[in-house]
Each structure stands twice: as structure tokens, then as C-alpha cells.
Amino acid sequence: MVVFTRADFRAAARGLIRSPAVALSAVVCLGLGLGATAAIAGAIQRALLSPLPFRAPDRLGGSAGRLVALVTRDGLRMIGGGLLLGLAGGWAVTRLLTFMLYGVSPFDAPTWVVASTLMVATGLAATLVPALRAARCDPVIAMRADW
């Protein structure tokens, strides 16, 4: 069992006061982690847990391919917006934390490209899986489940 005393808390507070950059970077990292968690939870809720925006795509004149294209297009819009916001936020944070990087450039192109590619691939997979699942679903069964 871990027991913290007042002296431990005072020492931690003194350390944060002496180096506010570490405290700021900790707060920024926690904020980014919470924001990313909320974004992922929202994407999962929208992609996997919420019903389709319309009940029977075949009755609306659309085919399974058109349904997949529609859902994927909407997903790509969200992915593109998230990528732009993430790149802008990452650029701003690396500008603030440049002094903490040792032996690595803050604008290391391969790192930015790999991270962006992984984010787009993950978002595309998260969009395509439910879209393909919805395209295989029989509209009559989907209507019975929703009503």
C-alpha cells in the first residue's frame, strides 16, 4: 500500500514550481490523452453502436455499394478534419517542447508521415468495417430490429 505524506506533496509542489515547463507538458499530455480518448469513444459510438442514419438503403434507391461510398465519404471528412487539427496541434506542441527533445528534430518528417498514415489507416478501417457490415444487412431485418 502506498502512503503519501504532506512532505511528499510539498516536495512535488516545489518541483512543479521550480520547473513549470514540466508541469505544462504534463498538463498538455493529459489533455491530449483525454481528448484522444473522447474522440475515439465518440467515433466508436457513432460507427459501431448507433443505428444507421436511414433504415433501408435499398428502399431509398441506393445499392450496397452506394451505401458503403456514402458512409466512407462521411468518415473521410471526419478523418481529414481530425488529421488537420491533429497536425496543427502537434506542430504547436512540438514548438513548445523543442527544448525537451534530445537528438530528434521536432519536425522529423518520417515520424509525422508514419503517424499521419497510421491515423488515416485506422480511421478508414473504423469507417469501412461498419459500412461493409451495414451493406450486408438485409433491410427487412434492419427495420425489424429498429422498430
Walkthrough of the structure:
Helix 1 (6-18) crosses helix 2 (20-49), helix 2 packs parallel to helix 4 and helix 3 (64-96) runs antiparallel to helix 4. The N and C termini lie far apart (52 Å). The protein has helices spanning 6-18, 20-49, 64-96, 109-136, 139-146. The chain is mainly alpha-helical and 147 residues long. The longest helix has 33 residues, at 64-96. The protein is built from 5 helices and no strands. The relative contact order is 0.12. Helices cover 76% and strands 0% of the residues.
Helix content estimate: over 70%
Radius of gyration: 22 Å
**Largest β sheet strand count, sense and barrel closure:** none
* Number of DSSP strand runs: 0
Number of distinct helices? 5
Distance separating the two termini = 52 Å
Mean pLDDT: 78
List the uncertain runs: none
What structural category do the secondary elements indicate? mainly alpha
Shape: elongated
What are the secondary-structure elements, in order, as H or E?
Answer: HHHHH
Summarize the structure.
This protein is mainly α and 147 residues long. Helix content is 76%, strand content 0%.
Spell out the key features of this protein:
147 residues; mainly alpha; 5 helices; 76% helix; 0% strand
Task: Give me the secondary-structure topology.
Blueprint lengths: L5 H13 L1 H30 L14 H33 L12 H28 L2 H8 L1
Helix pairs in contact: 1-2, 2-4, 3-4
